[in-house]
Amino acid sequence: MFGLFKKKTEVEKLQEKYKKLMEEAFDLSKINRSEGDSKYAEADKIQKQIEELTK
Fold it and tell me: Which DSSP string corresponds to 6-53?
């Protein structure tokens, strides 16, 4: 309850976005491989941003 009004950090926001992109990439890989690969590439960029922020 105390975390109810806590703002998310930039890393937490990026982690959520990364997770969402990975799920979309997985789902698209079953239907359209090239779109799935592009989503995976976006997720990889987000992962690199997370790594830069956590250094």
Answer: PPPPHHHHHHHHHHHHHHHHHHHHHH-HHHHHHHHHHHHHHHHHHHHH
**Amino acid type, 8:** K
pLDDT at 1: 57
Confidence of residue 55 (pLDDT cuts 50, 70, 90): confident
User: Among residues 9, 5, 3, 20, which one has the least CA distance to residue 50?
Assistant: 9
* Per-residue pLDDT tens digits for 27-50: 999 999 999 999 999 999 999 999
- State the Cα–Cα distance between residues 18 and 44, nearest whole angstrom: 8
54: helix, coil or strand? helix
